[in-house]
Amino acid sequence: MTRPTGHMLVAGTEIAGKGAGIRAVDPATGQTLEPEFGHGSPADVDRACTAAEEAFPVYRAAPRNDRAALLDRIADNIDALNETLVERAHSESGLPKARLTGEVGRTTGQLRMFASLVRQGDLEAPRVDPSPAADGSRSRPDIRQRRIPLGPVAVFGASNFPLAFSVAGGDTTSALAAGCPVVVKAHDAHPGTCELVARAVTRAVTELDMPAGTFSMLFGSGPELGTALVTDPRIQAVGFTGSRSGGLALLAAAQSRPRPIPVFAEMSSTNPVFLLPNALAERAGDIATGFVGSLTSGAGQFCTNPGLVVAVDGPELREFLSAAADSVAASEPSTMLTPDIAHAYADRLGELAAHPSVEELARGTGTDRPNTCRPALLATDAGEFLADESLHQEVFGACSLVVRCRDAEQLREVARNLEGQLTATVHAATADHPEAAALLPLLERCAGRVLFDGWPTGVQVGHAMVHGGPFPATSDSRGTSVGTLAVERFLRPVAYQDVPEALLPDSVAPGNPEQLWRRVDGEPGRH
Ligand code: NAP
């Protein structure tokens, strides 16, 4: 079956939602697409969560090679969808097919990367403090520690990555890798894509004989079905990517539960770019070209879009602004993900451009096509920026605000007063390194990733990546939603004190039967 049917997938069973449903809209044409996707009810949430809870003890106890095989099989099943998936995602999102083909590769590559992580067996991070102490100098209890999965996880897919941050995206993949069943609330912007991927996941669960409740996907409105999911007592953690208001609503719902649970919400970031004077003097034109390329890529609909530029005013900055403004003015409009996102962009840009202390430097060319984004470059002074928090807010789309500073001290003052960010970028020549060294500790405090002489869009999936940061970039700065470290969000440590040897889990058992990397009496090694 390669066409979406409009059905939800609950623990391996197709279920037609009831009541008013949704149809996807092709944002490039404004036309609605078939079929209709019926919304789930509280009973469907209950069914998915009951199945997830039943699946949990079996799934978490499955040999790690079997869990890894599940992730690999999901990747294979998604790859097999090939053109069908790209076509559907293209018509539901307006994103170019080449970009979506790359996103399929990113999604399946991510699944396979987590599969090898699970196979390596490091996730439990075992520690052993045996009794008596190795040197026999004192007696103490025998304490052994490992990490276990939290339990069923609710995942809210993002609109701007219909594959890599959606049904089988980073949150789902890292939760499954940790040993947690997943219940996904599909995004209404791309329901057909969600269904196709959910079928691929469900088929993998069946093919590998995993418990059916390991995975479910529901359609429904966020405030109703989404809140019911987050407040279901079986759900133990939440992964979310989207707006600040949506993330905060889910955080409030999770905290108001009789037993609150963690919410890992990635929400909003302006991703400041600091242009230091010698770098501008050396290569203002090249920096402008790179900046506008990053700003306008994907109609600016990246969480890492460079929405803020900070620099000391002077001839070098003016040269950069002139080149960047020319390039923005010549840029073509591109289709945004949904009519709502296009309206929100136009409204927010209109408000910002009308702000008395903001000057519009350039706006991209217009078009009659629906739901498009005209890139925009605006500017203000650092004093105004520091005095008015409304100027700090993200405008989701290809809009950037330049903050002109009086001197290096004021530039650092801006850095000190930024909200939490996913990224902070510095362009620095060698002669700027003393200033960059003063800036770096300030940027570490506000951002999850600091990068030099590049652009923040394009987040590499790897072992060292951090896609996170202090509020409002995320609701919990201690983790990442991209890269293998993401799995740690869904694990917690348990200590086993004087537990009889026969009852100990293998990862912490005497003799290290699985030959895992463990810390024994503080010493790391395979012992
Ligand atoms: P969104 O409106 O936050 O929606 C994301 C998900 O959260 C959807 O499934 C939505 O459900 C649910 N949701 C929203 N509000 C909720 C609430 N009050 N209670 C419970 N669930 C709720 O994000 P979006 O639709 O992807 O885009 C809207 C805006 O989000 C954009 O204009 C942009 O500002 C921002 N955004 C930011 C990022 C980022 O990475 N920083 C990425 C994407 C979007 P329903 O829609 O079905 O109700």
TrEMBL record:
Record has Oxidoreductase as a keyword: yes
Record SUPFAM superfamilies: ALDH-like (SSF53720)
Top-level taxonomic group: Bacteria
Keyword entries, A-Z: Oxidoreductase
One Pfam family in the UniProt entry: Aldedh
CDD domains: ALDH_KGSADH
Region (Disordered): 122-144, 505-527
Domain Aldehyde dehydrogenase stretches: 22-433
Biased composition (Basic and acidic residues): 516-527
Protein name: NADP-dependent aldehyde dehydrogenase
Species in which this protein is naturally found: Actinopolyspora alba
